[in-house]
Amino acid sequence: MATLAEALAQTLLPSTCAICGMVLPWRGSRAGVCPTCWGGVVPHPAPVCPACGSPEVEADGPCLGCRTTPPPWRAAASFGAYDGVLRELVLVFKSRGRDELAAPLAELLLATWRRAGWPRPDEVVAVPMTWTRRLRRGYNQAELLAHSLSRELGVPVVRALRRRGRGSQVGSARSDRLRLSATAFPVRRAVAGRVVLVDDVLTTGATAAACTGALMRAGAAGVHVLTIARTPRPGRIP
Questions:
Q1: What is the phi/psi pair of residue 165, to 5°?
Q2: pTM score above 0.90
Q3: 130, burial (CB in 10 Å: exposed 0-12, middle 13-18, buried 19+)
Q4: Structural domains of the chain ordered from first start
Q5: Where do the H-state alpha helices sit in 28-161?
Q6: What are the pLDDT digits (tens) for 115-138?
Q7: Using CA atoms, how far apart are residues 143 and 168, in angstroms rounded to an integer?
Q8: What secondary structure does DSSP assign to 142-174, as a single string?
């Protein structure tokens, strides 16, 4: 019976891994990704900065950047570095229409939240995208992650913000990213209590900072930023 089930699975399910392109085994594969590639997804090594989540620190405590210029959020954390298999998973998820990856990637978010030891949030908010970009892509990857995470945490998702202006910062210069302001994210609904802000990747932190500012004005008591991956900042000093 197991042989027949495997044969049917190989016929009906994707035949090759979305990451490495190898034949996709029936056992251990998830969302069209083989167990070998999933095994290559590794978390940040400890310690990490409790304020921004950067692993580029030498001791428990905030990094130099956060001591010098504290971020507007209470804390930020990501599962791992935006590199290798994790980077490929994020790109496949957001750029190739593979929305089935939302559930297993949200499990990485849940593991990150637990590892960070944050208090239970009252609401979950996804970083929004412009309606034109959402129409082209078919979904907002941050929103799919937020809904999966909210089910695990048992708290509601609130569509508190909308996106104004450019739909993406991919390829933008670092200086352009850092100029992003809270006006790019008008408030569409009030929030309350502790809010977890969900996105796929934390790069310069400009988007998270702008959203945090908007959420604080919308009534949040505090914001925690949760992402799948983090891009190391150039020239970051521990």
A1: 90, -145
A2: no
A3: middle
A4: 1-39 (no CATH), 44-230 (3.40.50)
A5: 35-39, 64-68, 84-95, 102-116, 131-137, 141-153
A6: 999 999 999 999 999 989 888 889
A7: 15
A8: HHHHHHHHHHHHT--B---B---S-S--TT--H
